[in-house]
Input
Amino acid sequence: MQSKLLLIIPAYNEQENIERVVEELKAKYPQFDYIVVNDGSKDNTAEICRAKGYHLMDYPINLGLAGAFQGGMKYAEKKDYAYAMQYDGDGQHDPKYIEELLEAAETSQSDIVIGSRFVTDKKPWTARMIGSRIISGCIRVTTGKKICDPTSGMRVFSRSMIKVLAKQVNYGPEPDTLAFLLRCGAKVTEHQVSMKERIAGESYLKFWSSVKYMARMCLSILIVQWFRKRV
Amino acid sequence: MPIILRIMLIVGSLATGIYIRGKLRKSQMQIEDVIFWLFFAAALIFMSVFPELIVWFAELIGIDSAVNFVFLCVIFLMLIRCFSLSVKVSTLEVKLKELTERLSVKDALIQDEERKESE
Output
């Protein structure tokens, strides 16, 4: 039986994490389907997945997080999943929230539910979170909506969003997509979660590239959005 | 226009033309892309062979030195080319992404079928 929700696990050079992450899912939450998207890793991520018999989508080249995510969305679309969720392969996301987020999506009839760290908890004043504040501010200015944790990767997408994200260009799993979908009338809600620190491996976002990332996000949300064709 | 610059332009254009011809013969370039460069080289030769025309044009639009007009033309053509290349690279990236994703989704679906059969 196919579950309602598909967990998309993008993995790039995650040989140290992937086994632990998937085994935890399989052991404690077997009711959810998952797919590991190996984004052209240079290490043994794909080999580990194959040896263990995990559900795997194996990219021959590295496309980046947006590409890995979109491939997962394409798969979810093909297999008619009602909901799809990004679940990070580095072990930051706590699987105990999956059920809650799915429930929240169903009861609130939302298009997107964000696993947010700051609905009830206060946002700290670290460099990273100041960046998060700036992005929140940009979204607030352009859409009038308050998104407490725009950079959280833990998001549940409904069927209608899956269709858009699977096919359209420029819909990566990033805050600017969120902002644009808000402007297109998508219903976005947030649900309090807590996240773990990374246990091993390197993050997609290294510290220096964060500056570039911030500039891209702000420009995209504040300026580029106005030129985009709405879905 | 200074005679040295004219000679340089002619020599440069001829050399570029020969180089492009070589690339085309070795099938390293598509004809659509070659056309631009051949046209570009031809325009440079034309400008160095008939400088009077350039001088006349430069005066017409209020540029004091004909050389500056040549530079302006070259820069403008380069910008257009640069932009169209940027568009092309973007399109290629999208296509490459689409191909990779589709291929891998198909693989995953086949894998699922096999799994179902073996169960």
